[in-house]
From TrEMBL:
Any GO BP annotation: regulation of DNA-templated transcription
Protein name: Sensor histidine kinase
PANTHER family: KDP OPERON TRANSCRIPTIONAL REGULATORY PROTEIN KDPE, REGULATOR OF RPOS
Residue positions where 4-aspartylphosphate is found in the record: 56
Domain OmpR/PhoB-type per the UniProt entry, residue ranges: 133-232
Length: 237
């Protein structure tokens, strides 16, 4: 199932909000499906091949975070965007930890939301080619581009598609600082080029998964005022 702007499953328990968003996004060229709960969303996803899911975190039943986790487990390559009214780091990290690729905080501009959905559809249809190497090995980490798998000391670490692309690009340029704007435009698209706080949230999430001590990172280093680099401590040994 493929339409011009993309096919999107809208998961929102508030009927008036759901209808309003559907009308607006349909007018912008998206093909919109609807679900009012996480349970209904899973049923719809098993029936229709969507490009992306736009999901409100604040839902009854299993809740948005648990729904996101189940969608990611059953549909590992699907783009998942979450919408939340809570603008704090913990909630964003919680959504990303559950498998979300992106988040939008209420209140949002329709233009911003549409741009995020288009980027999600593009990533689903044409995944970012951030690594030309079939396997990248940096220190204790091994990343397989073909299997889209990361291992640390031989143990697999689960990553979302977006986390994988971000880490792959950093590992491909290990030891070299990568500008904020370069990371954003390469992994998410040109429309994300100035969103440094957005990138910071994803880096924090990767550190939680990769680092022995996320508060004192040994591998994912911040380069003040510039960006980030992937560092192999063994090279200094």
């Amino acid at each position: 199932m493929e339409s011009g702007q993309g096919t999107v499953l809208l998961v929102e328990d508030d009927l008036s909000i759901r209808r309003g968003l559907k009308t607006t996004l349909t007018a912008l060229g998206f093909d919109i499906g609807e679900a009012s709960t996480g349970e209904e969303a899973l049923t719809r996803l098993r029936m229709v091949d969507y490009d992306a899911v736009l999901m409100d975190l604040n839902m009854p039943g299993m809740g948005g975070v648990e729904a996101c986790r189940r969608v990611r487990k059953e549909f590992p390559h699907l783009s998942i965007l979450v919408v939340t009214v809570r603008d704090n780091e913990e909630d964003k990290i919680g959504a990303l930890d559950a498998g979300a690729d992106d988040y939008v905080t209420k209140p949002f501009q329709v233009r911003e939301l549409a741009a995020r959905i288009r980027a999600a559809v593009r990533r689903r249809r044409t995944p970012a080619s951030v690594s030309a190497e079939p396997t990248l090995s940096v220190g204790i980490f091994e990343l397989s581009a073909e299997r889209r798998m990361l291992k640390k000391r031989g143990q697999e670490i689960k990553l979302t598609p977006t986390e994988f692309d971000l880490l792959a690009y950093l590992m491909m340029h290990a030891g070299h600082p990568i500008l904020h704007s370069k990371l954003l435009s390469t992994v998410w698209g040109a429309e994300y080029g100035d969103e440094r706080e957005y990138l910071r949230t994803f880096i924090l999430q990767l550190r939680r998964k990769l680092e022995d001590d996320p508060s004192n990172p040994a591998y994912l280093k911040t380069v003040n005022y510039l960006g980030y680099l992937f560092f192999d401590p063994s090279e200094d040994a």
